[in-house]
Amino acid sequence: MTPTTVENVSPKKRLLAALTTWALLFVATPGMVTRDGLWFVAAVALVPWALVCSRPGKRAFVVEWVAAAIGISAVCFWSTYVIWITLIAVALVPAVYMAFAGVLLRRLGRAWPLAVAAPCAWTALETLRLVVEPPFGFGWLRLGHHAHAELWFSGGARVWGTAGLSFALAALAGGLADIARARTAGLSFASAKKSVVLALAPLALCVVFALATRAPETVAGPRVLLVQPSFTQERKMAGRSGQEMLTELRDLTRRGIVDAERAAEPIDVVAWGETIFPYPLGSPELGAAYADGMRSVPYARHPLDSADIDDMREAEAKVVGEFLFGKGKYKPLLPTGASFVCGVEYFAPRDGALRRSNAIVAWDPRGERSGVGGKVHLVPGAEHLAGLERFGWVRDAALALAGYVPDLVGFDTTQVLTLEGQAGRKWLVGATVCFDNAFEGPYVDPLRRGELDFHLVASNEAWYRESWEYDHMMAFSRLLALETGRSIVRATNSGITAVIGPDGREVARLEIGNKDRMVAGVLRVVVPVPKTNPARETAPRPPYVATQRAWTVVWIALGFVLAFFGVRRSVTART
Question: Which of 88, 158, 405, 566 is buried deepest, with most CB atoms within 10 A?
């Protein structure tokens, strides 16, 4: 059903409709009403937006920008726990994209049913804000994430990703808006039959894709011991002695190892969370680079000197070598035959300077480094200032607001670490950190390059206390597991520490007294890994791994292409 005439809508009515959509999305978000979210509320949330915002009117762009800013601010209100000013960027930047979604919706609505216009407009701008790097983009919590736990539906992500789920939900809402518009116009339901078909087709495709594909067959992989100390962020940032935190980490780790020994369950990998190692570490090339004259950038939070580099070597030798692996006077804390992996603050030569990164370092069972990976997507404002830190007035403002100048650099791509366990068994692991968990690239890219057994996310979400941010991250992790066909292992400081299998089902979650966040404990779990086949070079992977880039282009371009042909179609009809 495509209307031939469309009446203008007042700013007040537009604002009410747009705010209703964002209010419904807020209620549907994971962690708000229920742990996994209300997918059926998300499925109808876009109806007011599609029905009203598809019509022209005064100040349409500004009104929808304001509504989106309010809605996204509510969904991401947990960001104020870091610093209140972050909410301004969180609100305004992604809100611009969704205001442009309204522009595209109105253009598409001239020639196409809302069952086509709404999903094309919403998914195009939602995908665009994902692929544009923050602070100029923000792909947090897309529409499809609300349905992450409905595997009969979200299993379709194995074929067309999270954006495909967004498209299907938005199409359903657009179809309902078409029916509502037909009833308002006094038309029969039969006049909207085409819209009903167009609305249900993407939903049916999701179900078909979920049924027609499956996760790779798995076998028992490493038994990992995930240690969650639950340090509050205030305590972690207070500069207390590393020895104090190390003592607590030691006690938790020892408890987990003793329990494993009693259960006759040998541990392959012990994992600590993001930057939880109590001392900074450096790359092997750091000393030579300093000797050659390389120095920290002028605005570095911790300008390095030779004594700092010596301290890093000594800290690694004593804490890792002696304390954890028992190379000196200490009895080893870690079980014989187990690897250790941990988030660290890491210094290395980068682009002509000594730079700091948020990294993950792995050590083999002999206590030798076996690899380094790290964060690809940095948090703007907290870890970098998009180059603005070069200006003195920006540094002064950052110091006044946050007490430090963000000066981290990210890794160019996800690094694959080799973790060795009992009897010399080895697994290839994609190493990611915290914010990476909101993006697809860090998880799909390593699988395009070669083999991978599972993903490891080292995360610190104590910044956000006990908010629904944790549940958002779990939704991201589940869909990433489905999209890549590989388990997601979450090793966190404060929660949620968990393992999600390649089929999207939770294997285990750390819960203490029915709480899964801001609690101290350990999780011992066997990670499902793909079953190898001697006849194949690589283990099977979902179609989305190969097609993710193509789908990204499709989702962004589809709405604009249809808008172009819709204009030509309208011109032809008038002539």
Answer: 158
